[in-house]
Amino acid sequence: MREMSEDSDGGVLVHLQYLNEKHTYRPVQILGMLFANLKQMAEKNLETSISSCVIGIPSYITELQRRAYLDVAHIADLEEIVVIIEEVKNDKLKKIRKY
Fold it and tell me: In what order do the strands lie in the sheet with 79-89?
């Protein structure tokens, strides 16, 4: 069972049923769990601990969405290194900015 509803602050809530229990998450929490899982898989394959990551973010997303990615990295216990790609034209990066 998957359902979505509106949070009191206007955000999105995702309602899931897992092992006969209902759970409610925000999209940032779900993405954070995904990043944590990816971190675990990488640590297992590389046989070393991972504490940092690079997250590429398109320039057209909002400041609120950028901050959400920082929250995602925090949930996954990663020191975020976020790169915002300002413009890509003819396969050449015009400007890269660390966030």
Answer: 52-58, 79-89, 92-98
pLDDT value, residue 24: 93
CB neighbours of residue 9 within 10 Å = 6
pLDDT tens sequence across 13-55: 999 888 889 999 999 999 999 999 999 999 999 999 999 888 8
Neighbouring CB atoms inside 10 A of 32's CB total 22
Backbone angles phi, psi at 50, to 5 degrees: -120, 130
Start-to-end CA distance of the chain, whole Å, equals: 37
User: What is the DSSP-derived secondary structure letter of residue 50?
Assistant: -
